[in-house]
């Protein structure tokens, strides 16, 4: 299990002076969790060389990234209207992802 937290960073319009960075991104928060099971191991008893087909190690894993499906903002797109007023539109990272992993070493 991993936990990530990052405080919000200040930002402002592109090509603006530093004092114009008056906005603040929301904090970055994420929780990942994963499980794995060793299926075949050369140290594991009960597995013969004939039944393992020369496999030294085999594992299966399941991971859930962004467990709580938090919308994390990574940056902002800046859009201007006809009066040259600029607006910040958030660019979000991916939501919850599931990952199934199977690995074999010969």
Topology:
Layout: E1 2-6, E2 10-11, E3 23-24, E4 28-41, H1 49-52, E5 57-65, E6 73-80, E7 86-92, E8 97-105
Spatial extent as radius of gyration: 23 Å
In spatial order, strands of the major sheet run 1-4-5-8
What is the tally of helical segments?
1
Report on the biggest sheet. Answer: 4 strands, antiparallel
Percentage of residues assigned to helices: under 10%
Calculate the mean pLDDT score and round it: 86
Give the low-confidence spans. Answer: none
β-sheet strand percentage: over 45%
| Number of strand elements | 8
- Overall shape: it is elongated
What is the H/E string?
Answer: EEEEHEEEE
Structural classification = mainly beta
How many angstroms separate the termini? 29 Å
Give a description of the structure.
With 106 residues, this protein is mostly beta strands. The protein contains one helix and eight strands, in the order ββββαββββ. The chain has one helix at residues 49-52, and strands at 2-6, 10-11, 23-24, 28-41, 57-65, 73-80, 86-92, 97-105. Strand 6 (73-80) and strand 7 (86-92) form a beta hairpin.
Provide keyphrases for this structure:
single chain; 106 residues; mainly beta; four-stranded antiparallel sheet; two-stranded antiparallel sheet; 1 helix; 8 strands; elongated
Brief summary:
This protein has 106 residues and is mainly beta.
């Amino acid at each position: 299990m991993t936990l990530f937290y990052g405080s919000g960073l200040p930002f402002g319009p592109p090509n603006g002076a530093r004092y114009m960075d008056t906005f603040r991104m929301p904090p970055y928060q994420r929780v990942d969790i994963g499980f794995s099971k060793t299926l075949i191991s050369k140290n594991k008893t009960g597995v013969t060389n004939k039944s393992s087909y020369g496999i030294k190690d085999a594992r299966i894993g399941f991971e859930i990234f962004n467990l709580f499906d938090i919308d994390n903002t990574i940056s902002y797109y800046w859009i201007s209207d006809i009066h040259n007023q600029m607006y910040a539109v958030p660019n979000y990272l991916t939501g919850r992802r599931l990952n199934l992993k199977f690995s074999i070493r010969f």
